[in-house]
Amino acid sequence: MNKHFLVFDMAMFLLFAAILASFLCSLYFFHRRTRCINPLLRDYFILGMLPPVLFNLWRIHDFITEILKLRGGTGEFKGPWFTKMNYLITCDSLNVQHMLCKTKNLFGERLGLCSNEDGGCCYSEEVLFQSVGRSCSNSNTFHCSSHEERIAHKTWRLWVLQRTVVHRNELFCHLCSLNVQHTLCKNFDNYVKGHDFRDIFEPFGDGFVTADYETWKYIRTLLHSLMKQPRLKAFVDQTVQKKILTSLLPILDHAQQLGRVVDLQDVLLRFTFDNIFLTTVGHDPKCLSIDFPVVAVGKAFRVSEKSIFYRHTVPKTVWKFQRWLQIGQEKKMTEACRTIDEFIYSFIESKREELGKCTEDEMNEAPSDLLTALMTEHGGREHDDKFVRDFAFNFLVAGRGSMASALTWFFWLLIKHPIVEAKILEEIRDNFKANEKKNDDCGHGFDEEYHNLHDQEQYLKVSGKVLGMEEVKKLVYLHAALCESLRLFPPLPIQRKQAVKADTLPSGHRVNANTMIMLSFYAMGRCEEIWGKDCLEFKPERWISEKGEIVNVASYKFIAFNAGPRTCLGKESSLLQMKMLTAAMFWKYRFQVVEGHVVSPSRSFGLSMKNGLKVRIMKRELCQSYNSRKSKQRKKKGDKNIYKVAAAILRKYCFKVVEGHVATPTHSIVLLMKNGLKARIMKRDV
Ligand code: HEM
């Protein structure tokens, strides 16, 4: 009898516990749902919004772009329960400007009152006041005293009501009090990398990637002064030219002669790796060699990047526990960091030794890599080894993957768009013509020299090795094509920020202190509001003004290099380097993606290609006819004749292109039609 009672009691207790647990779960579920005002996805029981993300992980950036478009550019993601994997995700350019820049023009621009400038400081109360018919003599505050101002207020209010999803009143109150300066400025300081970011990006130490506040300001100022040194710029220019000529072109030549399939992404990664190492520590790890060696430190960098991505996909407690036990990806991370540290510290030691023996004058003439420049600053005594290690590590990562990734996507787009490729070649050729003219003027007879060589590589060598940084500055169309590629495929597709204090974004979304925010740079590059209806098309022309100059797009819209005070410091240099590389490679070779090769983004923090970019390499046919002075003269005479002949033919005949005939351009320097132009000829009646 007692036993029966015990079983009954147990059953009742379990039933009660189950009811209580399900009640608490429902309560929590309900609470989560009510707190999530702008969900991006359906919030599942316990799993949160994770299931659809896992389902679409293979196309995660496109998936985020699609859902952000559906939700008006901003929304909340809630991870599984109690994992703290909650984010506000946005691709709204005004939100991005609000967070990244010391911005002032948030509202004015939407009202069409401000011009579209970069990085803050273009909001002008003056413009606002003038637009309502009163010129502004002072002031940051805005009182509703006159009729015109009340009209302006009304416009603001209308816009705010249209735009704001939540907290309308609060935002409107901000505007009503209109202490504009206070509300809209200095947001940059409110959105930091934060301690969670530093935890995940632990191998970066206290470098510029993870630093905030004063530490970041100090490193940024230091980096800025080092990177703008003419010595370093000249060193980078020479290093890239030499590396292209002595490693890259011979390796491509070798692969072309053997008819080998080459993974262009791998080649570019190796190139940028050697290049950034040379720039940073003055040593060439020779990753880009004919036998494609496995270089331990290169592998270690790849592993550490993979591990950082892994830390983004699991709750903090899980990877921390794994790290404590030293198992799985965390074990690999520890080993990789050890390899990298040994490598960097050995350089620091040998550099300190070398520099210790140098006199002041010799120090000034020492090779101009970044580490030497840093260590010779104030006699090099200011920074300890840990500081130099973090500095070097951050710089190596910042300059390595991003350029290789940008170039891989760019080359793939060029292969897919032969007309753009042909235009780039045409521009390079025109640039050579400019060289030719310059040489003619000096009386060097360079033109003749070229025609004796009959070989492009020789031509490149004679005309100043490969094109240098100064020369590629002239290539406007190539610049436009690169920007267009970076818009569609930003090497860093996501940026992470953490709010320090509560705030309201221009989109009206409320941000609490410590809210994690993801800025989707990838989605921003494909945003119709910024780029128009044809935002998914690869159109370099959108970057070129009627005057033939590059259109200046605000960096909080063209976001690949980040915006505001944390804008990429390597932007200008990396664009020039990429132009040098593209000019050298595409001038000499054409590339064909291997049949059946699938191009898709990898699951990593940077936007690389999952399967690489497998191509066959072919030598480009040389077209000389344009370059000779004689042919130029012939061409001038010919031009007049051509019009006469064309007019005579068209007067007599009309032409109809054969049905199904495909008109595609050739892969040669001159834009011809690959399949010719097949047409039926009819006599004109008149
Ligand atoms: C296509 C090439 C590149 C792209 C798309 C790119 C993009 C970016 C982005 C998005 C950031 C912001 C990162 C963050 O705050 O989390 C950044 C920062 C930075 N980049 Fe680049 N980068 C490129 C190449 C380079 C190169 C070659 C160098 C150096 C030689 C470089 C040096 C830096 C530095 C020093 C920062 C830190 C700025 C700061 O936090 O104050 N970048 N870059």
Automatic annotation (TrEMBL):
Transmembrane regions listed in the UniProt entry: 6-30
Swiss-Prot/TrEMBL keywords: Heme, Iron, Membrane, Metal-binding, Monooxygenase, Oxidoreductase, Transmembrane, Transmembrane helix
Family per similarity comment: Belongs to the cytochrome P450 family.
A single MF term (Gene Ontology): heme binding
Organism (species): Vigna radiata var. radiata
Protein name in the entry: Alkane hydroxylase MAH1-like
Gene Ontology biological-process annotations: lipid metabolic process
Matching Gene3D superfamilies: Cytochrome P450
Record Pfam families: p450
Cofactor: heme
Keyword Iron: yes
